[in-house]
Request: fold
Amino acid sequence: MAARPLSRMLRRLLRSSARSCSSGAPVTQPCPGESARAASEELSRRRQFLREHAAPFSAFLTDSFGRQHSYLRISLTEKCNLRCQYCMPEEGVPLTPKANLLTTEEILTLARLFVKEGVDKIRLTGGEPLIRPDVVDIVGLSWVFIETYVYIASWKQLVWWLEGCSQWHCPCSKAQLQRLEGLRTIGVTTNGINLARLLPQLQKAGLSAINISLDTLVPAKFEFIVRRKGFHKVMEGIHKAIELGYNPVKVNCVVMRGLNEDELLDFAALTEGLPLDVRFIEYMPFDGNKWNFKKMVSYKEMLDTVRQQWPELEKVPEEESSTAKAFKIPGFQGQISFITSMSEHFCGTCNRLRITADGNLKVCLFGNSEVSLRDHLRAGASEQELLRIIGAAVGRKKRQHAGMFSISQMKNRPMILIELFLMFHNSPPGNPSIFSWDPLHVQGLRPRMSFSSQVATLWKGCRVPQTPPLAQQRLGSGSFQRHYTSRADSNANSKCLSPGSWASAAPSGPQLTSEQLTHVDSEGRAAMVDVGRKPDTERVAVASAVVLLGPVAFKLVQQNQLKKGDALVVAQLAGVQAAKVTSQLIPLCHHVALSHIQVQLELDSTRHAVKIRASCRARGPTGVEMEALTSAAVAALTLYDMCKAVSRDIVLEEIKLISKTGGQRGDFHRA
Reply:
């Protein structure tokens, strides 16, 4: 009987002494019995106070382009209770060991540091954040927990609990985002499966914004997309959020051609009678989700579809840093938005940073460089040391991410290992010893490949060749006959390109051709070829080019007397590098993990020319002729660049494929 009045007394004490921060700013946390209107008014008062007492924004969170990063997304877990096709491979992903994940105390320590420097919005993501057992306590200590504890506690336990309080703060008060002075918004992005059950506690703890993922309104299709049941639980969660007064309730819908683009109008119609912000998201490429350009429905296409049904659709103003382009149908309660990460990026106003579940800071969702804050925390780094590391990472943030085709070829975490989703560009690293350039020598700044040994296994079998030593031979006395090759085991012949290697060869193998362009779809739009079902075979291609230098430039190259340096060395290296990045230069090329690249250059004194021969080898489902051609062409262009100050009468010619082996169309040898 004594427990109930003690519970009321305890609540009064906590309300009176622990509900305001040291600055006097009211802290938003709806208590039991408070109306949604009162909670909203309290939140408005707090925001007004923070605006009036705002401090100068932190230099540590401002990048070299002046973007101020006031929005932090924290992944609470890598685990998820769904298997969405665009987010996670069907077989799942290798998870980081629990010991390498951020603890609750580490999450709150980092959150406190970022908020102190100017972050005013934190969103909790995953995986699926609502499967983390202490998610309510991370947001803010729930009154349900306090009441339950007091009802079941013995007097001895209760005295221990009270003695552990400091100025009537809970012993777990460190695990509460809502107590952080300056934090205006605490949000969560969830798949909605556990939302209806947990949302009342989360709201009382201080949760102020909700994003719910839902890609279809058809239960059977939902099960196909997420590979699990649960459609009705998600719908229950959406209605519970509306019932508890969240406005708007944001619904995230990833639109994929051939899967759910036919439901655009159905989703938009939901906003007529419900306070929803339905956010249509362009399908984004992540590791393991088998992204295909043909599956992506662009923002303009989606907007045209909606406008055909509702021509009166109106544009809605949005905040400068917003990722969404918002529209409203007159008379409708809610609105629709479009997140255009692929077709119209919003990098110029990006204010987001991310902390992964294993404690890595990502300054760009589509970037693969990360810095481990966890490692520095556990090594005892001071607050100033952490800020220096964070500031260096933010300072390296690029002006914008790469284009969609480059992103689709780069190695990045699967979406599930970054966050559930939402808020760019190097080739996959082939050698673990190669790290991102670090001009500030900040330890811990590293490319994505080293973020955990488990995910590093995804690189297994993907080898990018290293450049071996160059071979150079001096022939005779008084003049140089120079030949260059990227092969380490080059033989001692004076000619890297022997007469036999340039001889005509008869075609061999079946000469299969197609009368239809493979990179154009049925409607004439550019499209990548789907090679997912093609078998892996050994592929080899050889290409050539000729650069006619003229007598003056040729002599300088032959004697290595150009002011710019050794033209043959530079051209050879350029050819090797170009082969490795072909997919970034030719938009519809697939990325190929090359196992061998060889670039050879021979001086032809009779024509005052340099002959270039490039060969590439790989094992995979697609050929490497584009890699060989790109290598030869870029080597030729590099020679032009090295010699143009001497002569503008330089001609590049005979860029062609010499031979190609492997693949369904058979071998090819130029006659």
